[in-house]
Amino acid sequence: MISHTHFLLLVVAVTRAGCSGKDPVKTVDWYKENTPERLAVIEKCDANPGELATSPNCINAIAAANQITLDKKIEYKKRTPINLSGSK
Questions:
Q1: pTM score, two decimals?
Q2: What radius of gyration do the chain's Cα atoms show?
Q3: Which residue has the higher pLDDT, 2 or 86?
Q4: Is 67 within 8 Å of 74 (Cβ atoms)?
Q5: Handedness of CA 8, 9, 11, 15 (dihedral sign)
Q6: DSSP 8-class letter at 4
Q7: Which residues of 17-30 are buried (b: 16+ CB within 10 A; e: fewer)?
Q8: Which InterPro entries does this chain map to (predicted)?
Q9: Helix-strand-coil percent breakdown of the chain, rounded to 5?
Q10: What is the distance between the alpha carbons of residues 15 and 19, in angstroms, rounded to a whole number?
Q11: Pair 52, 23: CB distance under 8 Å
Q12: How far apart are the two ends of the chain, measured CA to CA in Å?
């Protein structure tokens, strides 16, 4: 039979696990489409990297920012080349 102390500890543990207050995990694509939220999450992650750097939302928000930056650089490089030799 479970003692009163053990039962109380079990109830507290279950309650804390269910009410952790964690934000739902957003995808990289979601962060790419929601700039204000992406910037807010990255700011929170930068302010507390010791606790948040490995959280799924920090990783996804930073990955989204990196993909956006990379996409902009690749678009820039997709320009048609200039023909300087004069031949077609």
A1: 0.62
A2: 24
A3: 86
A4: no
A5: positive
A6: H
A7: eeeeeeeeebebee
A8: Eex_IncN-like
A9: 70, 0, 30
A10: 6
A11: no
A12: 90
Q: Find where tokens 């077609």 sit.
A: 88
User: In the structure encoding, which two tokens stand for residue 33, read together?
Assistant: 């489409």
Give me the amino acid identity at 17: A
Size (the chain), residues: 88
pLDDT tens for 3-50 read 555 554 554 454 444 444 578 999 999 999 999 999 999 999 999 999
So what's the pLDDT on residue 76? 62
- The helix (run of H) or strand (run of E) holding residue 66 is helix 56-77
CB count in 10 Å sphere of residue 32 = 17
Token pair of 57 as six digits: 């939302």
